Amino acid sequence: MRVEKSVHWELWSGLPTVLRVRPQVSKFERETRGQRSGRVGRPLHNAENPKRLCACCRRLTNAFPQPQCPHLMSDPSKPNILLVVPDGMQAGTVFPDSQCHTPNFDRLAARGVRFRRAHTSSPTCSPARASLMTGLLPHNHGVLEVEHGKDDDQCVLRTDKPHWAQRLVENGYRTGYFGKWHIERTNKLDDFGWQQHAVKDAKYMRNLGKGSEGPQPEIDPNFCRHVDSHEGYNKILHYAAVDLGPEDRYPGVSLKQTQEFLTESIASGEPWACCLSFSEPNESLIAGKEALSHYDVDQLELPASLRDDYSNRPNLYRRVHGVFKDVTDREWREALACYYARITELDQIFGKVYDQLEAAGQLDNTIIILAADHGRYVGSHGFDAHNFGPFEEIYRIPMIVSGPGIAEDEESDALVGFHDLCPTLLELTGSESIDSPDSNSFAGELRSPGSMKDAFDEGYAEFFGARFCHIQRVLWKDHWKFAFNGFDFDELYDLEADPHEMENLINEPEHQALIKELMARVWAKIRDTGDKSIHETHYYPMRFGAVGPNAAA
Description:
By secondary structure, this protein is α/β, with parallel strands linked by helices. The chain folds into three domains: 5-72, no CATH class; 80-271 and 283-357 and 370-376 and 403-458, Alkaline Phosphatase, subunit A (3-Layer(aba) Sandwich); 469-551, Arylsulfatase, C-terminal domain, CATH 3.30.1120. The protein is built from 16 helices and 15 strands. The chain has helices at residues 5-11, 27-33, 103-110, 125-134, 138-141, 164-170, 202-206, 250-268, 289-292, 315-321, 329-359, 392-395, 421-428, 443-447, 512-528, 532-535; strands at residues 80-87, 112-115, 174-179, 196-199, 219-227, 236-242, 272-281, 285-288, 366-371, 399-402, 410-412, 458-464, 471-477, 480-485, 491-494. The strands form three sheets. Strands 4-3-7-1-9-10-2-11 form an eight-stranded mixed β-sheet, with helices on both faces. A four-stranded antiparallel β-sheet has the order 12-13-14-15, covered by helices on one side. The protein has a three-stranded mixed β-sheet with strand order 5-6-8. A hairpin with an 8-residue loop joins strand 5 and strand 6 (236-242).
């Protein structure tokens, strides 16, 4: 029996409110949807659909003699996608030995693959997030630094580069994006494949770093710290405890929008892709007291590198440390507690979405991804924030992937990049690929962890300076990490013997052959990815590398 969508929704009176009006169709969608343009969705109950019911649809039994559950209609060849993107979250916060309380992320890891050595493409929000969408390194997509605080002709996303969300729309997916965007300035997400969206606006981003980040709850004066010790600079909130939980702050807004999109998408029976994106745990470390109750501040372990003396390190690191040199151990522990509590709050938000999908019978055909754009120091090497230095706390990111055909309760040491998610998602959904010299699909590693170890035995990232001159290229090879620093001398770390990166081996005689080999690999990456601004500069005063570009194999 055929039942129209509106009738079905009236009978679902007990379910959460849905988005009843689709947004205006963009030019991109009109051109790509073909016969799908203007169509509101398939009939929700017909002879082709499964004859099973999920728990929340059993109430329809009396209305339909042979009910067909819309939650179970999805095409197994087109799995749904839920992408959760925190901002500034350390990889180690989701490891089994972490001090951070994340029971829902642990649930996700038990159903999927946790990557221990995933890395960002750039330790800055806008470049990394643009890489996620395009599969390109920053020099190829055009967003070299954060897009706010720039003139209109600076850090502009190249519109000729396709995005994976566009490919999914072409493949019949419904798409929705909610939360932090911070990739380009127009906020016209329709042009990039996101049909429904609600993001933090440009005014919010312009206010970052000015002491005003929009409405904030009242802070506890007995549990907070400001950065205000430097003459002529704005007073900035470092961390604070507040009474309100995450659902009463901005994450709660994004949660509601996401849940409404999922309710409508599940009801439509069409495959869907949803990105739930956060500004947390980055920015000022404002945390609710309920989440803070999970942490005993006095018992929190401080980072092993907190007292780094920066010997044999670029002088920039000493200059940055000057901002934090007066922070006490107690204040670092309070900052860590707020940081972990913000992650716990994101874990709670994610848990509500996870529970919604589980109740709707969607988990078995939904690929769920947790992956942050970059990390944050929070005391490591005596710093906070990100945007400087080559250290693992900001370059290594959390990444957990679960879903149909993906191994369960496994770990991988493959050196996959944040930008590698783009081709991976396209392969997993059977969508048309994007030609990229910078990224590769690791779908095979998800199915069989360890099977692509040789293909992902090398990682690469780039950094363009974050307002001040700080050009850097970072290469991982096995347990070695090499940082080519255009602003000072280079760095070499043995991550196996020195996991906290306290000893720069760049001047050790026994490693000079290795340094030349790694520098040659950096030049090869620069050449192969078309980073012309560096590769084609043979200007003789700039001969800083251990070897030059002609040494690349």
